[in-house]
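step=encode ok
step=design start
structure_in=
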């Protein structure tokens, strides 16, 4: 039970790790002076009310900071043609022998299954004191 739970937990953790290592996203921040007004992930940050007034004054106290976090975009994908001879042989052997693991065993015939030994009235070996060594 514990082994299955750990196996599923590690599988989920590895899937999440692969997902987050390949996803790219941006973090956009809007500052008005030195004060942080809004932080947004995946979308544009909200502008403050001062931004609309600055268009008329042509003076900017607001600034936007954009951080782009790049994910891994070069994944190493191996095709079947890239395998060398040893790997080809291993792959062929594995694919040929794997289905054999799931075949049912033939029913074994036990010839003496219904044999009932006779009841012992006397222990002959003890009476004659003859022992096999």
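sequence_out=
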């Amino acid at each position: 039970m514990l082994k299955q739970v750990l196996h599923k937990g590690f599988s989920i953790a590895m899937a999440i790790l692969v997902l987050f290592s390949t996803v790219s996203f941006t973090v956009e921040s809007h500052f008005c002076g030195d004060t942080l007004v809004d932080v947004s992930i995946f979308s544009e940050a909200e502008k403050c009310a001062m931004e609309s007034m600055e268009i008329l004054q042509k003076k900017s106290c607001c600034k936007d900071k954009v951080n782009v976090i790049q994910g891994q975009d070069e994944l190493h994908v191996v095709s079947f043609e890239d395998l060398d001879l040893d790997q080809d042989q291993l792959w062929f052997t594995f694919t040929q022998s794997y289905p054999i693991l799931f075949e049912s065993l033939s029913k074994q015939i036990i010839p003496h299954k219904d044999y009932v030994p006779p009841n012992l009235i006397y222990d002959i070996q003890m009476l004659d004191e003859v022992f096999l060594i």
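step=design ok
step=annotate ok -> The beta strands are 25-32, 35-41, 62-69.
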